[in-house]
Specification:
coiled coil; single chain; about 180 residues
Length: about 180
């Protein structure tokens, strides 16, 4: 009786192939343990690396939150500044309008002053003319009064002379009588 197993021993190439996946050998067990340990170590390293990355991300998040807070405060201050600027612009605009109004009023007043100066000059010239006329009139009057006074004086002197003439004639005749 020839069994198949005997044939396998005498001719190893004809033997059916063994399923190596069924039962690992001692060397394979050790190599698998090493692989598992290595994989576990790699997994632990990956976990540690991931934890460090998470920690770094949290630190970066904290930094970003601080920056965001500063940015928020800056934006708030900027908004307040913009509101203040808007208010100041409105005030400046109002002041500019007042300045323009004041400048226009000042220009009107300067023109009025110039007109008054021209009127003043004209009135001074008219006054000088009136004074000259008054002086001429007074001079004429004075001359007329002087002439009248002279005429009155002459008339009075003539009247006195005429009134004294009979006395003088009487005296002359009385002196002659003597």
């Amino acid at each position: 009786m020839d069994s198949e197993g005997d044939d396998v021993l005498s001719n190893p190439g004809d033997a059916p192939e063994e399923d190596k996946t069924q039962a690992p050998t001692h060397d394979q067990d050790q190599e698998g343990d090493r692989e598992r340990k290595k994989t576990k170590a790699d997994d632990d390293g990956n976990v540690d690396l991931l934890l460090m990355q998470v920690q770094a991300l949290r630190e970066e998040q904290q930094k970003l939150l601080v920056l965001l807070l500063h940015f928020y405060k800056g934006c708030t201050a900027l908004l307040r500044s913009e509101e203040d600027n808007h208010s100041l612009r409105a005030k400046v605009q109002g002041l500019m309008e007042k300045v323009k109004s004041t400048e226009a009023r000042e220009e009107e007043l300067q023109q009025a002053v110039k007109a008054l100066e021209v009127s003043n000059t004209r009135l001074e010239m008219e006054l000088a003319g009136f004074r000259s006329q008054i002086d001429r009139h007074l001079e004429r009057r004075w001359r007329w009064r002087l002439k009248v006074s002279w005429a009155v004086a002459i008339i009075v002197a003539s009247a006195v002379a005429v009134a004294d003439l009979p006395k003088v004639k009487h005296r002359e005749s009385g002196e002659r009588e003597l």
